[in-house]
Amino acid sequence: MADEGQVIACHTVESWNQKLEYANASKKLVVVDFTASWCGPCRIMAPILAELAKKLPHVLFLKVDVDELATVAQDWEIEAMPTFIFLKDGSRLIDKVVGANKNELQMKTELHAAAAAVQSA
Fold this sequence. Notes:
This is Thioredoxin domain-containing protein. This protein is α/β, with parallel strands linked by helices. It has one domain (about 5-115): Glutaredoxin. The protein contains four helices and five strands; from the N terminus they run E-H-E-H-E-H-E-E-H. Strands 1-3-2-4-5 form a five-stranded mixed beta sheet, with helices on both faces. Strand 4 and strand 5 form a beta hairpin. The model has no long low-confidence stretch (mean pLDDT about 90).
């Protein structure tokens, strides 16, 4: 997948499903940013997530606008923005960060990325 090192926006349910299938097949850790265009804290967190994506190219970073893909947000029971979920095998929720907490997001992303790298080695 040519999107390593960047945050990939999912604009359709089909695109979302394809990315999760890829993550499952490749055994990549997935970090999903549930966001909204009107959400100020989401805009603050966007460059932080982009920086993590550059730093951790072996992790798949996705962005879902809750207004654009409401069914996906409902499937994952997203109630606040931003919410970041961490998925293993493309579908198993292993962690979550709710709110614009830069330090918690960085810590959990690096922790789960390190664990995923060890498991795939």
